[in-house]
Automatic annotation (TrEMBL):
Protein name: Malate dehydrogenase
Enzyme Commission designation: 1.1.1.37
A Pfam family assignment: Ldh_1_N
Origin species: Sphingobium cloacae
Residue span(s) of domain Lactate/malate dehydrogenase C-terminal: 148-307
Length: 319
């Protein structure tokens, strides 16, 4: 059986980490693509030289030519400009929209059967635009944000309750931005919902509210510390988890930016919701019951995504 082919569009911080993880996990052969000459080739060579030490024999190549992503099974897109301190995700819109156009066309021409995971910010708008430019079916194009946001939420909750992260299951809905909706009611420690843990005196509403807020600004906190770029280890790990769910038909229920057609009262938008990922890509959007506050928060998030799309359409009238 031929090995899977993983194409990574963008060979920056996340792209390089994705390649490293994909090689270590033996997901398949890897192609790193970037517009900058030398960088994908250099990273591919460096990563290939991990093989003898780690004992992997994935073929890792770097390229500036879309023809080399031909027939990729999974494509993870990080191409674009990363957020700098003081720059909002939305400032990135104009630049990254042009990048999505080039990437979408490259995918359409070379790998129309791939499962495509978009990571580039502003995520909810970029995944929508990438789907439009690539013309792939909606179930094959998905955005990564919720897996990362809920990983951040889980990390903070594990610290708060002083338990292993393995005991924590948390849920984040909505757009990837300051309007994301960490859903406290559906977040648990060893199956016990957070509100019950508050009642048991294990934490307080104020402390959980602060964790929710820290999760919402989790990306910004890291940008502020790094000063020259944004988070990349956890974003890459999160993207790989989604790729594995597809490649191994795991039917994992993951929060992803998925195309909605009426679910949650939203039509023709990509919004972060729980979905089942398996061999057909996004196999199901799971509609969970939300209380009034979560619904109102989700609506704020949906409105923010809508506003971004209006701005996208203003910049590129082919959308
Ligand atoms: O949760 C999430 N979705 C995110 C998103 C979490 C963290 C970071 N997130 C976003 O991912 C971030 O705001 C950026 O938009 C992307 C990629 O982040 P990364 O940290 O990897 O950025 P880099 O290191 O700047 O890498 C971007 C690469 C760089 O090598 C550029 O040369 C390349 O993208 N680039 C392109 N590649 C291909 N094609 C085009 N047109 C192109 N333009 C730039």
């Amino acid at each position: 059986m031929a090995r899977n082919k993983i194409a990574l569009i963008g060979a920056g911080n996340i792209g390089g980490t994705l390649a490293h993880l994909a090689a270590l996990k033996g997901l398949g052969d890897i192609v790193l693509f970037d517009v900058v000459e030398g960088v994908p080739q250099g990273k591919a060579l460096d990563l290939s030289q991990c093989g003898p030490v780690e004992g992997f024999d994935a073929k890792i190549t770097g390229t500036n030519d879309y023809a080399d992503i031909k027939d990729a099974d999974v494509i993870i897109v990080t191409a674009g400009v990363a957020r700098k301190p003081g720059m909002s995700r939305d400032d990135l819109l104009g630049i990254n929209l042009k990048v999505m156009k080039a990437v979408g066309e490259g995918i359409k021409a070379n790998a129309p059967n791939a499962f495509v995971i978009c990571i580039t910010n502003p995520l909810d708008a970029m995944v929508w635009a990438l789907r439009e430019f690539s013309g792939l079916p909606h179930n094959k194009v998905v955005g990564m944000a919720g897996v990362l946001d809920s990983a951040r939420f889980s990390h903070f909750l594990a610290e708060e309750f002083q338990v292993s992260v393995k005991e924590v299951n948390s849920f984040v809905l909505g757009g990837h931005g300051d309007t994301m909706v960490p859903v406290v009611e559906y977040s648990t420690v060893a199956g016990i919902p957070i509100p019950d843990l508050i009642k048991m005196g294990r934490s307080t509403q104020e402390r959980i509210d602060a964790i929710v807020q820290r999760t919402r600004s989790g990306g910004g906190e890291i940008v502020g510390l790094l000063k020259t770029g944004s988070a990349f280890y956890a974003p890459a790990t999160s993207g790989i988890a989604m790729a594995e769910a597809y490649l191994y038909d795991q039917k994992r229920l993951l929060p992803c930016a998925a195309h909605l057609t009426g679910q949650y009262g939203v039509d023709n938008l990509y919004v972060g919701v729980p979905v089942i990922i398996g061999k057909d890509g996004v196999e199901q959007v799971v509609e969970i019951e939300l209380d009034a506050a979560a619904k109102a928060n989700l609506q704020v998030s949906v409105d923010a995504v809508k506003e971004l799309l209006v701005a996208c359409k203003g910049i590129d009238n082919s959308l």
